[in-house]
Specification:
This protein has one helix at residues 45-48; strands spanning 4-8, 13-19, 23-32, 38-41, 51-57, 65-74, 78-87, 97-105. With 106 residues, the chain is mainly beta. The chain has one domain (4-105): Immunoglobulin-like (Sandwich), CATH 2.60.40.2020. Strands 1-3-6-5 form a four-stranded mixed β-sheet, with no helix packed on it. A four-stranded mixed β-sheet has the order 2-8-7-4. It is globular and about 40 Å long. The two termini are 18 Å apart. It comes from Odoribacter laneus YIT 12061. GO terms for molecular function: cysteine-type endopeptidase inhibitor activity. Keywords: Protease inhibitor, Thiol protease inhibitor.
């Protein structure tokens, strides 16, 4: 597998990463099971087309840590912004947390 970077972004915030063309970026974020909250990739269609895997690794009991993993592969040069939100899908209120990852592919 080509170059792979992992970003652990559970607390929210802004991250900046640089990759080579064909490189992989994995964004990992934790959340508590049984709360209804979950991480969602909410980025632009341009960034979404490079999303190759989205998996939740569940804890076995309510309240245990769950991990959302989003894996992207960037086959082209450019600058991209990935957006993620921790929210309950059915609620209209603002997300509990937000994450932005600025990716420069060289």
């Amino acid at each position: 597998m080509k170059h792979r970077k992992i970003v652990k972004a559970s607390e929210g915030g802004v991250f900046r990463e640089e990759l080579t063309v064909g490189g992989y970026l994995e964004v990992q974020m934790q959340f508590s099971g049984g709360t209804g909250f979950r991480w969602y990739a909410t980025g632009s269609p341009e960034s979404q087309k490079y999303l190759i895997s989205s998996v939740v690794h569940p804890g076995h009991r309510p309240g245990e840590v769950n991990i959302s993993r989003f894996v992207y592969m960037f086959p082209v040069y450019g600058n991209f912004i990935l957006h993620f939100e921790l929210k309950r899908e059915w609620e209209k209120s603002p997300p509990k947390r937000r994450v932005q990852v600025y990716v420069k592919v060289v």
